[in-house]
Amino acid sequence: METLGSVSTLRSRRIILFPLPFQGHINPMLQLANILHTRGFKITIIHAEYNSPNPSNYPHFAFKPIKDRFSEIADQLATNRDGTYFARYLNKSCVDSFTDCLAELLVEPGEERVACVITDACFYFTQAVADDLKLPRIVLRTSGLGCTLACDALPFCSKKACFYLTKQDSDYEASVPEFPLLKFKDIANITINPQGMGDLTSNILNQMRASAGIIWNTFKELEESDLETLSQDFQVPSFTLGPFHKYFPASGSSLIEQDRTILSWLDKQPPKSVVYVSFGSVAHITKSEFQEVAHGLANIGLPFLWVVRPGMVVGSEWLESLPENFLERMGDRGRIVKWSPQQEVLAHPATGCFWTHNGWNSTLESICEGVPMICSPCLGDQPINARYVSDVWKIGVLLEDGFERVGIKMAIKRVMMDKEGEEMRERVSCLKEKVNLSLAEGGSSCRSLNNLVDYILSF
Ligand code: UDP
Q: Which GO terms describe its molecular function (predicted)?
């Protein structure tokens, strides 16, 4: 019979993690690594060369770079509108280097046994590698439960035409029968390559089902009914221990330097007066859309903080396409930066609303600070998240007609000045309280983290 002492020496506290090399995936994976490290685990990060994290921000982790051949396609990032292309490419280009690296780590001399590997769900090829090496693979799904349900339901491969409807089609405003929360006009923006997205999602979902467990960056109270539906379909242990950024901020894994000078400008603005605008690390907009955003912000007359990532506007380096004299006209009322310390901006008392592309991290970060949203989803899971924000949780307004100055002005007014906006703020504040309860001792996320730790120690 084992004594307590021998059990603890058998249990392994060494874990290997493998993030997808994009900002919205790197942040939650490194936050998860930090969370597990504080629970006593020894962390090794295998990572692609592209968007490599900065090891000096994580002296407590070991980093193993692998060849990814991403440089062969990196010049397509601004022009190839098929977002799924890059993830599908990496699932082929990393196979050999990841397999060799993982196999070497498993037999590293003098090191303790590896308990499991945790990979981004989008790295579906890793399931077969882990199976071959007889190592449990846990998946980190960096998007919401609703996105996974929608991906499972949408007919990517069989009904491609429904992804290309335009305003002129009679069904454009109608609900999608397979996932009625979405309208056909939402999925017209979801991808330009339904076949590619169908292949990617079915590979991700199948390999999630084959995994040893799924970690979600969400909290139970936000998506309770979806969690029940999913647990019938994914019969592997599920852990909802998010939002991760509440344990550790994302600043250490930021790929672009955050401009902190704007915090002192925010300090000078009245409470809840500033419109914060950011469309994340991947989305691109056209020059005319960019100009509509600028006119919308100019016309509403409120202070604004606008993140314009270099290269975000197709065909522009940075701000060349702004309307004439825009910066001079705005004076101190508006600030434009290349990248912000987003979590601090959202937590700042001056921030009144968040005009967002609804990446899952941004959506969660806004909820956690009780900030209502204006939604301009661009691609991937963003239209799904935006529908949850506007139609399910009712904590934001979706710009139904895209980037168009009159609609923009009306949406900002609804959120910032109307009674309807006050109600949204109350609902999102309620969710903020639920987040805090879920993370507190005995709350759902706290319990889920304890379960995950016990589960990993059982391998
Ligand atoms: N972010 C940031 N500064 C910015 C804009 C974004 O630090 O100016 C961070 C943000 O806090 C979030 C991440 O970048 O953690 C973006 O992830 P998200 O899933 O929202 O969108 P993606 O970039 O993947 O489209």
A: quercetin 3-O-glucosyltransferase activity; quercetin 7-O-glucosyltransferase activity
Q: How many angstroms does the Cα of residue 378 sit away from the middle of ligand 1?
A: 14
196 is a domain residue: yes
The answer to whether residues 451 and 415 belong to one domain is no
Do 210 and 132 fall within a single domain? yes
Atom of ligand 1 nearest to the CA of 283: 25
Q: What is the pTM (predicted TM-score) of this model?
A: 0.96
What's the gap in Å between 23 CA and the centre of ligand 1? Answer: 7
249 lines ligand 1 (CB under 6 A): no
Q: Is the CB of 382 under 6 A from ligand 1?
A: no
Residues spanned by the domain of 159: 11-251+439-457
Question: pLDDT tens, 197-255?
Answer: 999 999 999 999 999 999 999 999 999 999 999 999 999 999 999 999 999 887 788 99
Interval 148-192: pLDDT, tens: 999 999 999 889 899 999 999 999 999 999 999 999 999 987 888
- CB 278 less than 6 A from any atom of ligand 1: yes
**Three-class secondary structure of residue 223 per DSSP:** coil
Q: Could you report the per-residue pLDDT of 359-416, keeping only the tens digit for each?
A: 999 999 999 999 999 999 999 999 999 999 999 999 999 999 999 999 999 999 999 9
Kindly give the distance from the C-alpha atom of residue 361 to the centroid of ligand 1, in angstroms, as a whole number.
Answer: 6
Please report whether residue 206 resides in a domain. Answer: yes
Atom of ligand 1 nearest to the CA of 250: 15
Q: Is the CB of 322 under 6 A from ligand 1?
A: no
Q: Which residues contact 259 (CB under 8 A, 6 or more apart)?
A: 337, 338, 339, 340, 341
Distance 437 CA to ligand 1 centre (A): 24
Q: Note whether residue 4 is domain-resident.
A: no
Q: What is the pLDDT of residue 10?
A: 60
CB 195 within 8 A of CB 160: yes
* Mean pLDDT of the region 51-63: 96
Binding site membership of 254 for ligand 1 (Cβ less than 6 Å): yes
| Alpha helix ranges (H) inside 211-347 | 224-233, 262-267, 287-300, 326-330, 342-347
| Residue 5 included in any domain | no
Least confident of 79-83, 93-97, 194-198: 79-83
Contact 103, 132 (CB under 8 A): no
CA distances from 415 to 79, 87, 274, 409 (A): 34, 35, 12, 10
| Ligand 1 atom at shortest distance from the alpha carbon of 340 | 8
Number of domains the chain is built from: 2
Whose CA is closest to atom 21 on ligand 1? 359
CATH number, domain of 417, equals 3.40.50.2000
3-state secondary structure of 7: helix
Structure tokens at 340: 């912000």
Say whether pLDDT at 196 is over 70. yes
